[in-house]
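TL;DR need structure tokens for one chain.
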Amino acid sequence: MGFKSDIEIAQEAKLRDIREIAEKLGLTEDDIDLYGKYKAKVDYNLLKKNNGKKAKLILTTAINPTPAGEGKTTTTIGVADALSRLGKDTAIALREPSLGPVFGVKGGAAGGGYAQVVPMEDINLHFTGDIHAIGAANNLLAAMLDNHIYQGNKLNIDPRRVIWRRAVDMNDRQLRFITDGLGGNANGVPREDGFDITVASEVMAAFCLANDILDLKERLGRIIVAYTWDDKPVTAADLKAHGAMAALLKDALKPNLVQTLEGTPAFVHGGPFANIAHGCNSVIATKMAMHFADYVVTEAGFGADLGAEKFLDIKCRMAHLKPDAVIIVATVRALKYNGGVAKSDINEENLKALEKGLPNLLKHVENITKVFKLPAVVAINKFPTDTNAEIRLVQDRCKELGVNVVLSEVWAKGGKGGEEVAKELIRLIEEEKNEFTYAYELDIPIKEKIRKIVKKVYGADDAVFSTKASKEIKKLEELGFGNVPICMAKTQYSLTDDPKKLGRPTGFTVEVREVGISAGAGFIVALTGSIMKMPGLPKAPAAEKIDVDENGVITGLF
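>> reply
TL;DR here they are.
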């Protein structure tokens, strides 16, 4: 049986004029900036107008994924369409895709099958240019920093202790570590440098946590870029760079409005990675969706150990949000992967491996319902290769263990395939107890916060700290950064810091090898394992299959 590709389905869809989508939210043409017929930006100043709505917020998270991803975005979109079908005024808030994964291995982030946001080619490529603007702001700061050193270094910056890196939105391992400023006095001061992928830039994190342009400007000003010869931090405000950076981001800060295949309004805005950053769309987009709809479905990156933990402990804390219910996406193939099946074999029936992988799902359910104390439903995201016996096994085992589980068929059926999930969410919101709490308190030492995350959320025995990390933590507490949230940088494939330890490991520790402050974002980043802020392309990049014909029709984009 042949299946249409995501891009074929998207290209065959009849899109509505974006002004019609805006009308569903009560927005007029004066409230939006049109980017062609099917995309618009919405003025964040509209949030200052009180419309009396109090939307129900639904978070979509998942189990530890396979390298191909498990369909959180697809589920988010399909369930939102299902809520719309059930008569609820619904909107979506999603991250926008980075070009790195689009051309690399994971693919885009516009959903799939009959649960997509469109125009998918635009969303997965340049979209409205937000990520380029963030890269430009990042690199303006880098240029002004090096220029300051070249022009006499009035701030007494130690060139060996410049921590601000340049950014490009591409997987390019060649740029991880470079030496620049070569070629004599006229070309700058030579030093070791490097690039991060733009979505790992602190500018992206600050952008996604800002409430408005003035808040963003203040956050940008707090970014620490270097240290002086006498060990004092130097900020973007010290370099007088934050005003110009904010000016570059003025229009990018307006959330992007698009639509699902079924016409549900979708805000797609901001896109930090969840394994190296906090993994959530912008606060402004979430608040905008909640301002104009009754039900809002949003997502957090990767599994509940990463994206959901950061969504709840960082974003909800900073933005004063409280989720009403959580969807935990599980797939038969990811459960088999966690049961030890190689990626190349996950489409073949294997009940034994499926059973072995189930404890991974149970840990994520416990994280949401017992650590964060939120009502949840497991949505089994059905793939065409899943067998009836496999689906039945997951449903039966979940029910035996008291896990709330529903089959989701949004990939094949769109909103109609998500109605059972949507109905269960409505029931959870209306009937179940919600005692939302955080995994840790802010006013405890940095090491204790990290220990609480690794013990409660990952199931580790303890966190261990390198000598370097311990020194960095001591320094951060001396500088007054002891009372901010923690952003863990960890592999997405395992509950541990080792991507090869699948399932639900026990008896392990998590090593924190490096710790740094994202003062603009307002959190501490703890790096574990071999996580890097600049990914590389795989042996056969997805870019090799992407093409465009003489009519401008793109192919190979999933």
